User: Which sequence fits this backbone?
């Protein structure tokens, strides 16, 4: 740039173009400007201060003081607002990564564990005789996991929030449910059908009270995740505007300085400008990178996770209904309209069909959302498991409709070739897909959060430095009047 | 810029998608729940459109104490209904029978029995009927029917017959046809041994009593409470799909007593040594096989089978299943012999 360094001119011979206000008032000492004689009546401090300021503005040192104060204020305000807004966003981004997303996953896992425990219990009952070691173990593991996730959820829920209400409810119902299942087991061992009645009661508790509460919790946590995203990603416009304003103010002050004194560089003001520029650039770039990371984590993580969770829940519900079709043995029916005619169909089988449709849609959507091979592969596998499941289910229904209950039972809960096999495969594949998307989410959101690292503290420190620079720079000019 | 557009789109569609999914779910629940309930409502209306037509003469004269006599005389002749059952092909050539899978020793699945077969006193009778009609005692498709679904299941043709500890009453005779009685019982009260309840009397004051939905017990208790035969303070709000669910509620302390048929109450008592039958049966009732009102040939055939069954088979089945809970002497449980057939058409 133009390295034209003018020799310092004495302030009295200011050759700057005439400013709007009549400037050249020689004032040897700035402060004790002769003020008008105090009015006989005492005036308010504010009015006096105003008068003083007005009087000060008439002298160059006075004006310089005001400019210095305003510049420092502007830079400090810029730093403070930046620190505040980025702290907010960083906290929200941190919540996304470490709180709301894990919680939304925990809530989905609570639902899954509960539904799976119930299915395992009813399968055990269906098997006739006594439940197998596997179904028992599965049930116990599910209950343990549900209890574990409930603690995680409870630790992170705000007291008195709807989420904590749902958690309390589930915490109360879980031992109740387990008690009913234990009784069912005991009576089953003795060969009494009242065991089956206990299992029905437990199932009713699960379907009517626990699963709705778990679903509620899942929805609430998902909403919280959405809210955190909404808090973390908007541009910090107030900080950006203040930054631009501070830079403009600094530029104007330096321009004014140049016009008045012909001096191009004032170290203090340059330092202030540099720090303000750094903060502004850091803010805009850091935030943009963070946003990109967060948006990526939403698009490639959360969206896929939501779809996969929903698909998993549908698959669990379908399996539960498939079992209940055999437990109830036609006891529950529902009316549906097909081809304009109202027909009575088995309630559980009907629900199985609709849950399978939901599962199919969910898997198709998940496949579309999957953005790499590793994410797509388990979803495609799950889709083929589902197709096989449907095929086997049709065969099982055929047997049951023909009154071959035992054959139907073997096709549903038997070992090889049963629908249970397909359900387990769907579960495993969905679990893999979920793990993959979870990793993707964590990576992207972590990158986003990292981009915000230090921004808050950095902005605050630099702003203080910048303000100091502005004050020093103006002070340097001021000292020339002494 | 691009990032912002993508994000905006995402946020929008992600949110909308999630909301839509939840809305759909909620809607599905809202739509499905009333539907699943509707059959229950249907069974409550006992004076359905079917009442007027049919056997008016019999209905008009029906008294509950003689209801069991209102059936057709036995005959082995095949009619339309039996012909239709026999015409079922291949795997489907089975008698479709509504039974209970929760009545200990009547119709239940023994959890310690490795096959999933249902067994009990009712089930024996079903096998006997299937053997007679289709020549194979195992040519049966069992359907588990809750108490309040017995009549709709017959009316909608979901089952050929119901053999499920079903009491013959005048109300039910206006909806379905019954065979001659195959068992005699009466309503009885079941309560914990330690309970202050002594029987079907004033000791029931301020207690909660459980009954099965659409059961004889439920109807009778409601009538008796309204008529003041039992204390007004008896709470009858606990109504469950199946009499056995009452035992669960009793054990959990949600109710103080259970009222059901004596035969079933004895089955409940057999599953829990801390409860017992309180007082004597306060009604006399008969179990019959329920069939469609128009299935005259089937009713006659079942009545003929029952004549034979009472002579040989009934006692053996009783000894196997019921002597342990109802006593070795079957006299009080035996249906009147010979049965009366007062229904003309």
Assistant:
């Amino acid at each position: 740039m133009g390295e034209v360094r003018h020799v310092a001119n004495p302030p009295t011979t200011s050759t700057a173009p005439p400013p709007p206000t009549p400037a050249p008032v020689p004032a040897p000492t700035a402060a004790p400007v002769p003020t008008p004689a105090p009015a006989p009546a005492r005036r308010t401090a504010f009015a006096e201060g105003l008068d003083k300021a007005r009087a000060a503005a008439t002298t160059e040192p006075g004006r310089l003081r005001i400019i210095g104060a305003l510049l420092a204020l502007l830079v400090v305000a810029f730093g403070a607002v930046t620190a505040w807004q980025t702290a907010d966003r960083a906290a929200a981004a941190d919540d996304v990564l470490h709180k709301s997303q894990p919680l939304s996953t925990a809530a989905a896992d609570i639902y899954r564990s509960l539904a799976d425990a119930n299915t395992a219990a009813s399968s055990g009952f269906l098997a006739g005789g006594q439940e197998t070691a596997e179904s028992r173990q599965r049930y116990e593991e599910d209950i343990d996991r549900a209890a574990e996730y409930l603690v995680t959820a409870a630790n992170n829920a705000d007291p008195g929030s709807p989420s904590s209400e749902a958690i309390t409810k589930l915490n109360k119902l879980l031992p109740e449910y387990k008690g009913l299942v234990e009784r069912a087991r005991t009576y089953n061992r003795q060969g009494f059908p009242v065991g089956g009645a206990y299992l029905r009661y437990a199932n009713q508790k699960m379907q009517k009270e626990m699963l709705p509460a778990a679903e509620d919790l899942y929805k609430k946590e998902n909403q919280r995740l959405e809210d955190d995203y909404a808090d973390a990603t908007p541009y910090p416009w107030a900080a950006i505007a203040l930054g631009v304003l501070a830079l403009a103010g600094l530029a104007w002050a330096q321009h004014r300085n140049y016009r008045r004194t012909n001096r191009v560089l004032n170290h203090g003001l340059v330092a202030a400008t540099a720090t303000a520029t750094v903060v502004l650039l850091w803010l805009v770039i850091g935030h943009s990178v963070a946003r990109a990371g967060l948006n990526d984590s939403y698009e490639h993580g959360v969206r896929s996770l939501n779809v996969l969770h929903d698909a998993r829940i549908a698959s669990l519900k379908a399996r539960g209904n498939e079992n209940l079709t055999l437990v109830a043995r036609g006891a529950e029916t529902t009316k549906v309209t097909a081809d304009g005619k109202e027909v009575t169909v088995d309630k559980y089988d009907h629900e199985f069909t609709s849950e399978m449709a939901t599962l199919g849609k969910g898997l198709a959507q998940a496949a579309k959302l999957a953005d790499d091979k590793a994410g797509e592969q388990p979803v495609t596998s799950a889709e083929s498991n589902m197709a096989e499941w449907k095929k086997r289910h049709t065969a099982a229904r055929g047997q049951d409709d023909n009154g071959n209950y035992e054959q139907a039972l073997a096709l549903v809960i038997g070992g090889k070739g049963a629908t249970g096999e397909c359900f387990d495969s769907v579960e495993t594949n969905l679990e893999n897909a979920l793990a993959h998307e979870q990793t993707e989410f964590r990576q992207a959101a972590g990158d986003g959060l990292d981009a915000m690292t230090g921004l808050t503290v950095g902005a605050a420190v630099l702003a203080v430095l910048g303000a100091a620079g502005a004050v020093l720079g103006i002070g340097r000019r001021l000292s020339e009047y002494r | 810029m691009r990032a912002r557009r993508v994000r905006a789109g995402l946020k929008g569609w992600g949110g909308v998608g999630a909301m839509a999914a939840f809305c759909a779910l909620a809607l599905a629940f809202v739509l499905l729940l009333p539907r699943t309930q509707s059959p229950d409502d249907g069974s409550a209306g006992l004076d359905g459109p079917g009442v007027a037509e049919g056997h008016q003469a019999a209905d008009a004269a029906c008294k509950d104490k003689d209801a069991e006599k209102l059936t057709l005389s036995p005959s082995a002749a095949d009619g339309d209904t039996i012909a239709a059952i026999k015409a079922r092909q291949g795997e489907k050539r089975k008698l479709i029978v509504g039974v209970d899978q929760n009545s200990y020793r009547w119709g239940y699945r023994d959890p310690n029995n490795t096959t999933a077969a249902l067994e009990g006193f009712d089930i024996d009778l079903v096998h006997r009927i299937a053997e007679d009609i289709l020549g194979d005692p195992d040519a049966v498709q069992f359907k588990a029917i809750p108490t309040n679904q017995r009549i709709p299941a017959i009316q909608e043709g979901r089952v050929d017959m119901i053999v499920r500890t079903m009491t013959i009453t005048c109300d039910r005779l206006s909806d379905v046809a019954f065979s001659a009685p195959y068992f005699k019982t009466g309503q009885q009260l079941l309560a914990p041994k330690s309970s202050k309840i002594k029987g079907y009397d004033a000791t029931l004051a301020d207690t909660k009593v459980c009954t099965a939905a659409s059961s004889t017990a439920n109807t009778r208790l409601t009538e008796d409470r309204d008529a003041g035969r039992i204390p007004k303070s008896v709470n009858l709000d606990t109504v469950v799909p199946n009499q056995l669910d009452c035992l669960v509620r009793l054990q959990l302390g949600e109710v103080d007593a259970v009222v059901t048929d004596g035969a079933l109450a004895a089955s409940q008592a057999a599953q829990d040594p801390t409860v017992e039958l309180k007082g004597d049966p306060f009604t006399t009732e008969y179990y019959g096989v329920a069939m469609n009102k128009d299935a005259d040939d089937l009713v006659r055939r079942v009545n003929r089978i029952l004549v034979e069954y009472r002579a040989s088979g009934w006692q053996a089945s009783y000894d196997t299943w019921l002597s342990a809970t109802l006593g070795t002497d079957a006299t009080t449980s035996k249906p009147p012999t010979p049965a009366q057939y007062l229904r003309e058409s």
Summary: The longest strand of chain B covers residues 187-192. The CA atoms of residues 35 and 157 of chain B lie 19 Å apart.
